[in-house]
């Protein structure tokens, strides 16, 4: 268990454009600003930066709105019905059976097993949205491998995304893709009778939420944040799937 962690943004990250190699951009920004990586650092990177580089923007102009999307729009009129259709599409179930609705709130269960506000779909402009990375574990691994190749330092990577809760105002930040850092932290305790209890924490989300203190929301241009001091065993095969209670469809 770590007694102290340090969280800091990597300075000088430019605005990401489609086709950019985020790993190389992070390495170059770190070099120019004399920011050194250490073995065991945990790099948290905003999903929208990854999605932008991977070309996950989607125009709404040619979206055909289904009757299901129109019905949902009647319940949540603030949402563009075309965006609602995209939210539906991301669940893989056009009948809306994997959509959760409440007052002014919509969330979707993705085929990966994750449940995210608006299925992880964000509005960029009146006629454009951006989707999550196609495979956030794969994206995290690619960034981590680039850092290792370029710096010789082994850094874990978490792709993070903002998410809202139906019972609270505002948003928090959680993990949607991992490389190197385990998804769960397992704690054991023994009571006075000697009985051992095991408790699991979704440590990837705790780290992602900690990074959000510095990263902020889109527009702050702090898409890459490093957490230092968290002690863990590096796992080449870590995956966000390890944290999910529902397995991929």
CATH topology tier name of the largest domain: 60s Ribosomal Protein L30, Chain: A
Distance between the termini: 35 Å
Mind telling me the C-alpha Rg?
19 Å
Write out the CATH superfamily name of the largest domain.
Answer: CofE-like
Keywords summarizing the entry:
2 domains; 13 strands; 249 residues; CofE-like fold; globular; 60s Ribosomal Protein L30, Chain: A; 27% strand; 27% helix; alpha+beta
Task: Compose a concise summary of this entry.
The protein contains six helices and 13 strands.
Task: Provide an overview of this structure.
About 25% of the residues lie in helices and about 25% in strands. It has about 250 residues and is of the alpha+beta class. It folds into two domains: about 5-55 and about 135-245, CofE-like (60s Ribosomal Protein L30, Chain: A, 2-Layer Sandwich); about 60-130, CofE-like domain (CofE-like fold). α1 crosses α5 and α3 crosses α4 (about 80-90).
């Amino acid at each position: 268990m770590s007694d102290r962690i340090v969280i800091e943004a990597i300075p000088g990250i430019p605005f990401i454009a489609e086709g950019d190699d985020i790993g190389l951009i992070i390495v170059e920004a770190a070099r120019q600003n004399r920011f050194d990586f250490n073995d065991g650092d945990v790099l948290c990177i905003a999903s929208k930066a990854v999605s932008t580089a991977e070309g996950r923007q989607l125009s709404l102009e040619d979206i055909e709105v289904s009757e299901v999307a129109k019905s949902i729009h009647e319940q949540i009129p603030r949402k563009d019905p075309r965006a609602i259709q995209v939210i539906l599409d991301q669940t893989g179930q056009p009948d809306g059976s994997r959509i959760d609705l409440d007052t002014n709130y919509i969330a979707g269960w993705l085929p990966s097993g994750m449940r995210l506000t608006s299925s992880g779909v964000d509005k960029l402009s009146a006629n454009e949205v951006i989707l999550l990375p196609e495979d956030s574990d794969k994206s995290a691994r690619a960034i981590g491998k680039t850092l290792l190749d370029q710096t010789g330092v082994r850094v874990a990577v978490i792709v993070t995304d903002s998410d809202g809760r139906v019972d609270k105002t505002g948003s928090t930040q959680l993990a949607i893709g991992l490389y190197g850092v385990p998804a769960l932290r397992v704690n054991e305790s023994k009571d006075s009778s000697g009985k051992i209890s095991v408790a699991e924490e979704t440590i990837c989300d705790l780290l992602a939420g900690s990074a959000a203190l510095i990263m902020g929301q889109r527009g702050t241009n702090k898409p890459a944040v490093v957490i230092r001091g968290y002690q863990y065993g590096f796992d080449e095969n870590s995956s966000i799937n390890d944290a999910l209670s529902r397995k991929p469809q």
